[in-house]
Amino acid sequence: MTIEQQHTQGWLQSVRWNSLEDHLDLLDQRRLPEDIVYLQLTTSEQVWDAIKQLAVRGAPAIGIAAAFGVYLGVRKFSGSREALLAEIIRQCDYLATSRPTAVNLFWALDRMKARAQALLGGTAEPVGVDAVKQALLDEARAIQAEDEETCRLIGEHALSLFEDGMGVLTHCNAGGLATARYGTATAPMYLAKEKGMSLKVFADETRPVLQGARLTAFELQQAGIDVTLICDNMAGAVMSKGWIQAVIVGTDRVAANGDVANKIGTYSVAVLAKAHGIPFYVACPMSTIDLNTPTGADIPIEERHEDEITQGFGKRTAPQGVKVYNPAFDVTPNEYVTAIITEKGIIRAPYAENLKKLFA
Ligand code: MRU
Fold this sequence. Notes:
Blueprint: H1 3-8, E1 15-18, E2 23-27, E3 38-41, H2 44-52, H3 59-74, H4 81-95, H5 103-120, H6 129-159, E4 167-170, H7 187-194, E5 200-204, H8 211-222, E6 227-230, H9 235-240, E7 246-249, E8 253-255, E9 260-263, H10 266-275, E10 280-283, E11 289-290, H11 307-310, E12 329-332, E13 339-342, E14 345-347, H12 351-359
Helix pairs in contact: 2-3, 3-4, 3-5, 3-6, 4-5, 5-6, 6-7
The chain binds 5-S-methyl-1-O-phosphono-5-thio-D-ribulose (MRU).
The site of 5-S-methyl-1-O-phosphono-5-thio-D-ribulose has 18 residues, from helix 3 and strand 9.
Active site: 252 (proton donor)
GO biological process, one term: L-methionine salvage from methylthioadenosine
Site (Transition state stabilizer): 172
């Protein structure tokens, strides 16, 4: 399907492999909602930069883009099989330095590495360098295709928790733009629409980079879903009016004990939800669950440049020289999480036990 065809059907693909021209088309999410511009990426350095600068963002989409980045990093390689394996590992290690919090990035790079190791690490029937490069491209495409299916399944499970006419609040963008398609937190919203159910979505604008306003409100509106934009500091007021029956957000990493890292401000929403007796759901693929990270305190939280707060979008809104603290994510302790919704089903407390069972 072409970009134009997708657009007329009400969705935009954030990452597209262009097989005719052998490059990556990446929707520049920094320019939304005003401009729909695809960057043409031909090197792994450009992919690293696009992840760092938030041209592509959202945990699954970062992983997908990085996987294609590995292929771009080695597609012009010529040399021995041993040197190719070393170069693939170097490219993966390099791309892993782009952002620290979303574990999907490391998950996707590990998967690319494993594919290369399986083909190059002393197989009985040696595979040629060109075939390995093709296998890397195929793997990146598979990661993307599987994510679309995964998000749809998440949506099916999540929708079983929702009823027609419910008010649902979300924070940041865990939407189609952050994944291969459908999103995680937004997947039940798209599926509800397909099934003729109506949900009333409230999107927090999500300071400081406004993923909620620029991206979630944009993509839901494009899809004809009932969405109302609010400032982050209005969530409590909207809940107290009785307009919200569920909160659903995405996540960048779920620790083994069920603590959840997501966009800064998520923790405040979770506390507000608990105070109002509103269920707080977290939707994510299994690839976002990191059993090697014991608790939320062990999740590395990215800190970003102060300009995002003092002069976001080019207008200075704070005094010169003021001290700034700008963490991109916060951790919601597991006791605030009503359920974690994955492609394999709905997981509830005790999370340490039930998350482990999920992978067993
Ligand atoms: O800084 P961002 O825009 O990459 O942060 C994105 C989020 O926090 C999302 O909620 C999360 O990655 C889940 S996306 C399905």
